[in-house]
Amino acid sequence: MFHAFHRPRPRLVRPQPHGRRRHRGDAGGGRLLETALLSDDTSVLAFVETHAGDDPAIVTIDAPLTVPNVTGRRLAEAEVGAVFGRFQAAAHPTNRTRLADAAGVVRGEALTQALTARGFVHDPRIPVGLPVRRVVEVYPHPATVALFGLSRTLKYKNKGQAREVMDAAWTALYDHLAALAQADPPLTGLGAHLAVNPATLRGRALKDHEDRTDALLCAYIALYAHRWGLERSEVLGTLEGGYIFTPTLPERWNASRAVEVSS
Q: How many CB atoms lie within 10 A of CB 255?
């Protein structure tokens, strides 16, 4: 079972709804089962406990989960920029000064600690096809470049660009999401999500749909990791210093990485 949580980068201080996706699958493919918008970590943990229980599951989170540096950026952001910057898929700098609340708590770290207390292991080195309970930091932008063969990221987020530019990006993204039914691994069950026309959405409704879509992408990253492990994915950065797990470019595929994890 694969769970995904999207939290807008780079700030995690103020609670806000997060897209949540649940799908069931194995290395041969998966099907989307449920979506939700959750407003706080208590509801996130309750959702995981309800739907995963003690079973194998991969939880992917679009938020920094390890942030040891007070200022500057992590090696993770530097390496993402080196590999994916030419596709406009670099990541914003992550540090404790930007992310920690008044008590010094980084929200992604706190959620990770709560999940590890429930039997999840914080380790992005996922063995191919094996039943595991993992929590992993991911980032949808470079993933879409690698998964969909993009020359640059799709500008579907409402960032002040012309509406026609955003609507065209949504159309392209929907085409790619629909094609996941024939991908390796396949993901089905997206009909209800793809039936929503983003061109008709404004304000909060549009933002909620963005979050649901990003959560869907995070969930597919989990399924892809279960299918391919590190053969077609990379851990950019380090577990100790902060990392980002992402599907990677075909020229960077490396079967030996998956063998090392499985051995």
A: 12
Q: What is the mean pLDDT of residues 43-67?
A: 93
- Residues 6+ positions from 160 with CB-CB distance below 8 Å: none
What would the two tokens of residue 51 be?
Answer: 């739907």
Q: Which of 145, 38, 134, 41 is nearest to 91 (CA)?
A: 145
pLDDT digits (tens, 9 = 90+) for 180-222: 999 999 999 999 999 999 999 999 999 999 999 999 999 999 9
Please tell me the distance from the alpha carbon of residue 52 to that of residue 191, in angstroms, as a whole number. 23
Rounded to 5 degrees, what angle do the CA atoms 152, 252, 171 make?
A: 25
This prediction's pTM: 0.91
Separation in Å, CA 40 to CA 5, 46, 109, 144, 146: 11, 10, 14, 27, 31
What mean pLDDT is reported for the chain?
A: 89
Model pLDDT, residue 262 = 60
Decide: helix, strand or coil at residue 213.
helix
Instruction: In whole angstroms, give the CA distance from residue 70 to residue 97.
Output: 6
User: Exposed/middle/buried for 166, CB within 10 Å: 0-12, 13-18, 19+?
Assistant: buried
Radius of gyration of the chain (CA): 17
